[in-house]
């Protein structure tokens, strides 16, 4: 699924992305590292994989969205 980078802390390598409906989905360092990224800027389009539902939904993979 696609999302937009919302927040990112380079020290902890964690943050949040926003789904297209505006729902924030958090991610942690393992999700960031799994995508092979080195940096993430707010506003970047990303592809994510999630697990969980509702308030417990988390991104488990964050990669750059390519066309």
The low-confidence parts are none
Name the overall outline: globular
Rounded Rg: 10 Å
Quaternary state of the chains? single chain
SSE series: EEEHEE
Class by SSE composition: mainly beta
Highlighted features:
mainly beta; five-stranded antiparallel beta sheet; 1 helix
Description:
The chain has 67 residues and is mostly beta strands. The protein is 9% helix and 46% strand. The protein contains one helix and five strands. The chain has one helix spanning 29-34; strands at 2-9, 14-18, 24-27, 45-51, 58-64. Strands 3-2-1-4-5 form a five-stranded antiparallel sheet. The two termini are 13 Å apart. The relative contact order is 0.29.
Q: In terms of topology, how is this protein built?
A:
Elements: E1 2-9, E2 14-18, E3 24-27, H1 29-34, E4 45-51, E5 58-64
Antiparallel strand pairs: 1-2, 1-4, 2-3, 4-5
């Amino acid at each position: 699924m696609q999302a937009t980078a919302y927040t990112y802390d380079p020290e902890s390598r964690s943050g949040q992305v926003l789904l297209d409906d505006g729902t924030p989905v958090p991610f942690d360092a393992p999700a960031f590292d799994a995508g092979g990224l080195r940096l993430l800027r707010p506003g970047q389009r990303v592809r994510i994989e999630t697990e969980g539902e509702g308030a417990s939904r988390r991104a488990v993979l964050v990669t750059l969205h390519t066309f």
